[in-house]
Structures are given as structure tokens and as C-alpha cells.
Design a protein that fits this description.
This protein is of the alpha+beta class. The protein has six helices and eleven strands. Helix 4 crosses helix 6. Pfam families: ACPS (PF01648).
Length: 252
Amino acid sequence: MSPPTTHVDRGDRIDFWVIPADQPAPVVARLRLLLDRTELDRAAAATDPVRADRFSTVHGVVRLLTAERLGIAPADLVWSYGPHGKPEPVTAGDDRLQLSYSASGPLAVLALAEGRRVGADVEELRDERVATRLAGRFFPRSDQRFVRDGTPSAVSDRFTRLWCRREAVVKVYGGRLAQGLGLPLAGTGPLLLPTATPLDQGPCRVQDVPVPGAFRAAVAAEGAADLAVRHRLWTAPASLLEPHQPLQHSST
């Protein structure tokens, strides 16, 4: 007799997208057409053309994937922003879809969930000396020891993972990074933060998520329920290279 399977409801699932931000020029140009005026102005303000293209790519893909979940056209998606910039889609009569995204150089991540606030962060590995200095300045003692007691090659890894966890937890509640610097997040596995946190919020789950290259990432979500994370890689669909075709995403 086979063991029973565990059903994961869509409302319990977090779709965690990994988005390569360096895309061919035709893809970037097509994604840029999806952006609203505020996003276009931010892209235009970048003095480095590489950064401008990456911004357009990431924000275009976020629109594409969010709109697909909502069943609307990407260009019709309207954002509202929290006091510290966390975006939420403005949809008629439905506020269940929650999201968080982050970008670091050529890599970005997006977390999508329904009925549960989420936070996501990705960071490039920090230099060992910088990691040690920042941990000593900002982290609680338990996290300082966790970073410092690692092998030289592990110091950068441990620091960057803990930094991503802080960012992800803070983003769940739309707060500021300073509010999460004192959180004790040391360890290698998923963590449950209790109700009494420096953010003065309810319980929160946080865990690392694998990403390629010299990057680390984390995802967090409100509540004590386990995180059912579906890891997905965004690839540019053929429709992005065909101007007269409707945009549809593809994934692996």
C-alpha cells in the first residue's frame, strides 16, 4: 500500500521565481513596453545602460508573472505601494495575491503567494572581510558567532544567507531593514520566528532558497504554517521575440 500523499493547496504554496536579468535586446525592448510611467522614469534615471536594461527586464517579468496569476494583461496591472515601497497589485475585489521581489546585479527573484504576506531577497556573496565587519556591527551576538565560527570560505556564505533572511522577513511586513537587524536568524535550516519579534508582528517562517552562481536567497511568509515553496526558473518565451504575438510566460 503506497503512503498517502500530502496535498498542497494553491493558497499554501509560494511560487519562487528565479529571473535572469540579462536578456537579449529584443526581449528587453518588449518587456519595457509593459512598464508604467513611474517604472519607465526609474529605468531612464539609471546612468548605466546595463542597469537600466536589468531594471526593465525585472520589472517587466514581475508584471508578466503577476498579471498571469491575476488573469489580466500585464500592461493593465496597477501597483499600490506601502510606506517603505512594498508593491501590491490593485485588483477589483481581490487582495489575496501577495508578492515580493528582489534584484542583485544579473539575478532577480520573485515570490508569489495567495492569502499570506511574503518577502523575498537575493544578494551576491559578500567579501569575507566585509561580511565579518558588517556582522560585528549589525547582527546580534548569536549571529555574529555563527558567521565568525565558520571556516574562511563559509564566512561569506553564512553572512549573506543571514542578510537575505533579514531582508525577506522585513519585506513580509513592509518594514525597514533596520527593524530586522537584531533578529536572531542563525542556523542552517528553516526557522519559525515567534510572535515577540523586534517587528512587533505575529509569527513568521523563513528559509533559504537555492539560486545559481555566487548568490544567496531567502523567502519568508507570515504565520506559523510551513513554507511549501515551488522553485521556478523564468525563461523568455518565444512571444517576446514576435512583436505581433500576445505575451505569455514560459517556465522550467
